[in-house]
Amino acid sequence: MKKFLSIMLVVCFLLTITTGCESNRQQADEKSSTNTMETKKEESDMQIQIQGENDETVIFQLNDSTAASSLYDQLPMTIDVEDNSDDEKIFYPDKKLDTSKTPMAKGPIGTLAYYEPWGDVVMYYDDCGGASGLYALGEAISGIDQISQLSGLIEITKYSENTKQDDDTAKQNEDTQPTVKKDETFSIEQSDGMHHIQIAIGSKTFTASLYDNDTVRELLRRFPMSLQMDELHGNEKYYYFSEGLSSSAQSVSQIYTGDLKLFGNDCLVLFYKDFPTSFSYTSLGHINNPQGLSEALGNGSIQIQFRLIE
């Protein structure tokens, strides 16, 4: 009997040790997993800003790959951007990127990729179909429509809330009237509940007031933007975005000179004549004083710049 009790005590002791070891291993695994998640979260916060010679601004969210980190570590840089094919802009960083733990690229408009055989970074303003040796770096989260407009020298910097605050402070010190925001974020709402913007057409500049709704807020995140707007019916200029906006179209009976509206969810329309209509639009706002608008717009396609007034 004593021998049996001794054996049972030994078994219980061994079970206690084993259970404790398993518990310690489980806690260690959980701690390791948490640390890994925190590290990936920090890496996925990498964002870069590309600024063009004509104030084009594109912000990319980088993924947590080794190639993206290699690019991020080389910033800031000022470098030439080049056209390649009819759907991408490219630049060549000084050092080649490490693609050892990087997924292959294939994605929508705004995809940022690295083509290892050439050593160039690719910004897609059409769909990225993927290719051998093409690795994913991230995607544009702001200014997608401005990628195709980049040319000449571009400035690439690390982007963060501090970057935005520094830019805002610098712009407050500029002795220009009015001060215009050049970054892709906005938080300004005027006391009258409207957002105020500049619309520049050649040498003529108009001030417009936009409503405070979801569509307008999404649109303003793309500012500043320069659009080649086409002519239609002798009373409007229009532009189709490659990526649509949220919309809440309603039937309207009358269009007024200076109205700014969204047709469907991707067609921006600026009207320069009064006329009746039976179509449905999402109303965005209107030009405050449209006198001279028709003459400024002319009869054909025209480049129009939209900027947010601070």
Quick description:
It holds the Pfam family Cyclophil_like2. This protein has 5 helices and 19 strands.
Give structural notes.
Pfam families: Cyclophil_like2. Residues 27-44 have a biased composition (Basic and acidic residues). Residues 24-45 are annotated as: Disordered. This is Cyclophilin-like domain-containing protein. Residues 1-23 form the signal peptide. The chain has five helices and 19 strands. A hairpin with a 3-residue loop joins strand 11 (225-232) and strand 12 (236-240). It folds into two domains: 45-156, Cyclophilin (Beta Barrel), CATH 2.40.100; 192-306, Cyclophilin. It has helices at residues 2-44, 66-73, 161-172, 214-220, 293-297, and strands spanning 47-51, 57-62, 77-84, 88-91, 111-115, 120-124, 134-142, 152-158, 195-201, 204-210, 225-232, 236-240, 250-251, 254-255, 259-263, 267-271, 275-276, 280-287, 302-308. The protein is elongated. It has 310 residues and is of the alpha+beta class. The strands form three sheets. It has an eight-stranded antiparallel beta barrel with strand order 1-2-7-5-6-4-3-8.
